[in-house]
Amino acid sequence: MGLFDIFKKKTHAEKISIKFRKLRDKSIINESKSMMHAMILSSPHDNSFLDENPSGEGLFGLVKSNPIPVYGIDNIPAYIDKLRYKYTSKSGTDTFNHLDYQRTIDQDTSEIGSQKPTSDPVASSVSSPNINGHIDVYNLFSIGGEKKAKIYINSYSLKTSNKIPEGFIHRDETPPERDSKALMELMKQMK
Prior knowledge:
The protein starts with 11 loop residues before the first helix and ends with a helix. Strand 5 and strand 6 form a beta hairpin. The chain is α+β, with helices and mostly antiparallel strands. The strands form 2 sheets. Strands 1-6-5-4 form a 4-stranded mixed beta sheet, with no helix packed on it. It has one domain. Helices cover 20% and strands 17% of the residues.
């Protein structure tokens, strides 16, 4: 970018992209210092500061032996906010939708595609011999309440992962003008 590019007029498409980037930025759930910080330090925990636990085994986030590192339970919403799934409408337009989540148990055998329960199911933590700290289990649901996956999260970590489980897309890798949360922010502003 040269000095005179600053004065160059933006195209309509560039202006739209900038607007949607601002809308998406406004809707992002940001990570904060965990209220669990002292408890994490005083308990067995993952202090690797890596996106994936070096002791993890198996598919990242999809098995309890390789859970997603998250810096405290209170930062789980910030992590899940990074996840998107691709939705293609009947007209062929792609959007990248955010997910809803619900805590569950390891023995949850509800099928992918099943509907989200109307009440919170029983939930409990699990453990894996290769992972320090408790592991929580969550079901992820589409905007329409359809189950997309069951994931495992270890919130006894000093870093929240930026890695995404297989089958999902990182929010930052999607076009802002096709991000469902940015589109929802735009609709709010139009009211």
